[in-house]
Each structure stands twice: as C-alpha cells, then as structure tokens.
C-alpha cells in the first residue's frame, strides 16, 4: 500500500477513536452515497465501475466496520433527530438511481447487518425497461455484450463525432478500464436525446436495470428501507427550464406517492447538481430536505436543501479507514 494511503488510514482511524474526534462528531451525522452492489467484487474493482459500484464482500466489510464505529440510523434520524441521544456519531446510507441490484445484492446484506438505508429512485426507470445510458454504453464498449454490438456502437459514436480513444484498445485491463471511464465522462456533454438514441443501439440485458414497484414495496415492507425521488428521467436539473423542471419534480413525486406507503420528504438531485433556482422549485414541491453530492458531514446547521454526502467507492468499501479520513476532512471546523 502506498505510504500516503497508509497515513490516511492511520490518521483517520486515530481521529475516530480520539476524544477530539468523538467531540467533533458528537451530534453530527454522516450521510453516505452509494449506487450499486454488484454480484462480485472483481467486477467492481475495475476503474470504470469503481466509483458507482461496490462488490458484496467489500460492502459486507463496510457494514461491519460502520456498525463498530457508528450508530447506523435511518436518514430521517439524522435530519430530524429524536430524543434518544447517543455518544456515538450517526451514519445513514443512501443509494441513488434505483438499481435492481439494490434488492438482489445490497438488501440481503443490509438485512443481515440490520443497517437501514434510503433508496432514491429515478422514477421513469422503475418497473420499465428504460436503461441508464452510462451502464449500457459502458458495458457494450467493455465487450460485455460481444464484439458485434461493440463495433456497431463505436460506429454510431463515430457518426456523432465521438470516436473511441485508442487507449480503449490497450492490452492492460486497468488502463483500458480507466480510458473507458474518462470516455464515458466526456459523453456527459451530449444531449439527453442523443444519449438515449445511443442506448437504444446497445443490446438489452436479460433483466431490467432498475427495480420494479413490486420490489420497492417489498423492500419498504421490510421496515429497513425507505424511498425518495431522484428525478423522473434522471435529466440534470440545471439544464432544464422552469416548466420541465417542475414536470420532473412533480412526476417523480407523484410516482413515489403512488408506489410507496411512506415516501421520504427528501429530494435527491440527479448528478447532485443544483443552484438557488432549483432549490426553490424543490422546496415549492413540499420537500424540506434535499441531498447533493458535495462532501461533508451534517451538523444540523447546513442548508437543508443542499445536504452534503460522502461517496463510497469500491476502494473505500474495501478500506473503510479511508472513509474515516474523509470524515475527518469533512468534520474539521
Ligand atoms: Zn443518479
């Protein structure tokens, strides 16, 4: 392990276990952001999946570590704390998008460790075959669906003036995966319509990518999971005019109210992007709280419509001491 990583791990651990650390985190809450839990850890280790995916072993390791150092609470227990005071800092888990693997791979482990979580749904995807473009494009380019599908997609990308970088043919798996990550990030500048058309060119997976409403209700009935909205189409809010923005917020809000018993009064911005105009619209739709992606910890004094979160990658889940380093950075007064 690199010296820098070792220092981060050690100082993060010392911080969590020191009187100073415990004092600074007293009454504070850490909100973690996850997306997917894959069926195996090796797949999640690759750079192009590492940020949004964790593997089951790493996730179980993270949960055990969290239980050791934190009170693992439902999100609302951080946002509207009850009367029970605890000496330990609180942590709440959130998952974005509404991936099917949240039910298949994440939930069994959440149940085993009795850790509550909140899942934020991009509601157009729930119960439909609609697909998230970065997953379909990424995996097709990664050869997960065969050479013919990959070649066809590369041709479509070329026609859009987005040729594949040569590094994507590198023999080294890590370098190839990293190049794919950068290429996918560069595609974010394409119009949503173009991204959808490219997604349509990718082969269908055997199972839908997203949860269906039956799964949502079953997870909710477990008492361990609650749900909130994360856009309807996952369009990035800052690019929308007022009318489309209101449509996205009310469509996702209505879907949650129809599909769940007790939807959360918390909005989760797609991609985390928001500004004053967007926060106002979200508040107008009766959401007193909203989650962003800016790192930090919650002390009850931050803007409730711009709540900070700390992202969990496969790397962090494997080495949760790195998380204590990031909490230390976020907790510094
Ligand atoms: Zn998202």
Automatic annotation (TrEMBL):
Q: Does the keyword Signal apply?
A: yes
Q: Which UniProt keywords apply?
A: Signal
| Gene Ontology BP term (one) | carbohydrate metabolic process
Q: Is Mitochondrion set as a keyword in this record?
A: no
Please name the Pfam families in this protein's record: Polysacc_deac_1
Query: In the record, what terms sit under GO molecular function?
Result: hydrolase activity, acting on carbon-nitrogen (but not peptide) bonds
Which InterPro entries does this chain map to?
A: Glyco_hydro/deAcase_b/a-brl, NODB_dom, Polysacch_Deacetylase
User: Domain NodB homology spans what residues?
Assistant: 89-333
Q: Which domain of life is it from?
A: Bacteria
Q: From the Swiss-Prot or TrEMBL record, give the protein name.
A: Polysaccharide deacetylase
- Annotated organism of origin: Pseudomonas lini
């Amino acid at each position: 392990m690199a010296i820098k990583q070792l220092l981060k791990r050690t100082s993060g651990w010392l911080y969590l276990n020191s009187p100073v650390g415990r004092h600074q985190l007293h009454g504070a809450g850490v909100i973690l952001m996850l997306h997917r839990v894959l069926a195996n850890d090796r797949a999640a280790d690759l750079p192009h999946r590492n940020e949004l995916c964790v593997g089951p072993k790493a996730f179980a390791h993270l949960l055990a570590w969290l239980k050791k150092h934190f009170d693992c609470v439902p999100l609302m227990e951080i946002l509207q704390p009850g009367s029970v005071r605890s000496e330990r800092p609180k942590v709440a888990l959130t998952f974005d998008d509404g991936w099917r693997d949240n039910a298949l791979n994440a939930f069994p482990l959440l149940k085993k460790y009795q850790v509550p979580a909140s899942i934020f749904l991009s509601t157009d995807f729930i119960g439909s075959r609609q697909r998230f473009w970065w997953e379909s494009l990424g995996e097709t380019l990664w050869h997960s669906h065969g050479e013919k599908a990959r070649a066809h997609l590369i041709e479509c990308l070329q026609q859009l003036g987005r040729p594949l970088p040569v590094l994507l043919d590198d023999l080294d798996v890590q370098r190839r995966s990293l190049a794919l990550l950068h290429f996918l990030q560069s595609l974010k500048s394409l119009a949503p319509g173009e991204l959808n058309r490219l997604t349509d060119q990718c082969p269908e997976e055997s199972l839908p990518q997203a949860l269906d409403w039956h799964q949502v209700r079953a997870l909710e009935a477990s008492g361990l999971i609650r749900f909130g909205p994360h856009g309807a189409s996952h369009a990035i809010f800052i690019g929308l005019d007022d009318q489309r923005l209101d449509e996205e917020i009310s469509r996702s809000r209505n879907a949650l109210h129809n599909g769940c018993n007790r939807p959360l009064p918390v909005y989760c911005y797609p991609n985390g992007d928001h500004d004053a105009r967007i926060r106002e619209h979200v508040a107008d739709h009766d959401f007193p709280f909203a989650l962003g992606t800016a790192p930090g910890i919650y002390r009850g004094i931050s803007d409730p419509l711009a709540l900070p979160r700390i992202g969990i990658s496969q790397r962090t889940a494997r080495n949760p001491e790195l998380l204590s380093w990031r909490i230390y950075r976020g907790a510094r007064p």
